[in-house]
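Record format v2
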Amino acid sequence: MLNNSLMLPQWIELLYLLVIKELNIRYKRSILGYFWAIANPFAFAFVYWIAFKFIMRIQMENYSVFLLTGMFPWTWMNQAIIQGTGCYTNNSSLVRRVKLPKLILPLSNVVQEMIHFVFAIPVIFFFIFISGCLTHPLEQIWQIPIMLVIQLMFVYPITILFGLLNVFVRDIQYIVGILFSILFFATPMVYPINMVPEKYRIYSELNPLFPLIESWRGILIDGVISFSYIMNIMIWSAALSIFAALLYRRLSGKIAELV
Amino acid sequence: MKMIEVCNVFKSYGSTSRVGIKELIVGKRIIKEGLFSRKWALEDISFSVDAGRSLGIVGHNGTGKSTLLSLMLGTLKADRGSVVQRGRIGAMLELGSGFHPDLTGRENVFLNASILGLRISEIRAQFDAIVDFSELGSAIEQPLRTYSAGMIARLAFAVLAHAHSDVLLIDEVLGVGDASYQKKCEDFFLRYISNGGTLVIVSHDLVTIKRLCIDGICLHKGKLIEWSSINSAVDCYKKLSTCPQQ
């Protein structure tokens, strides 16, 4: 068997081709093609912006911007994990019939959704700009790549875990969907944390998705990155990675038989 | 040099009938033991393939031939025993695995060749040769869903033929091509072996397998009952076919 470090550039190319494949499949057959990658988040953001600016006027300054800066990173994570849960079960021919580094499949799901998020960044900034929140453009922009890497390292092990478990218990794919609709409201994301009653606030602080979303807001709205939040996410990422690695070592040999 | 060594391999698929909510309520259905029910999918298999040799595997349906190829490729793990591979392995265990119908032939070539371990630069350099070999011409720019099964087989095989594999594992997939293409595949295999490549092929086409292979094994109900020349393996298989309950 070839040395793993020698294989790395080849794996990166394979990841690139897998991601391109998914993007091509999603956009190629539509008339507007890749234009949808940016039109879709724009339309989504516009609907929310109208809804909260003129209809549901929430008593909070620039609520639309608050909402959008939380919703887009959330959508990336949510979509990556929900789709990644099927990364083995929906790709049985890739798992059974060809020799593939198996950890590349969940990674391609996460990266693909990350690219959709990256397409949405200009949209987010458009709404930040028209709401007059573009106060420190340099700080608001240069820290984005750091957060991309941090979220990637956080979402990837979760995707591996659900992808693996779904091979053995197919009910996981439904449970993940329900779990995320619970978390959508359980995480202070569509509402600020000070709306949470004092005695429940500890649960929000324990939820790793809260510092993740708050960090994005810190960067995108104020241009400030919070180190305590970042540390919090990184500890979660490390713990999840170890857990995912152990589970993968135990279960990966059985994947091809069960999908 | 031994490119593949299979030592005392046992493989079972376990009991795959799962207890779901329906079985809990209605109760389990008792299914009669059939032709394919046995404890081991493969039982105590040992053989090896030397570099530059070609091995043909024959046997009835459901006798473990494809499982054996998956073990050699490494997508399945043996329950007991060991499988050792050397060199780069290319496999065609299924028609168009890893192909996507909405991608063009060109895009599928890149993806498939990358799965087989080629670098993008290598694929670019060989792209024209791959298209030439497949004889698909301008159809290479069409999405794969417009292809016939034979065209998909041509494309898949063209990629495999340019993947510089040290070992090729082929499972009964060449039958879909037309006569001229099958001839082309056979010529490729013979050239590949004479250049030092190692070939393992599963087929029910006994004439072709005799032409391509030197060694042969015959499987029956998960057991290896013959490992010698391809002629004796095929004879053994024919004998089983006349009295299958043996």
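Residues 33-258 of chain A form one domain.
Chain A has one domain: 33-258.
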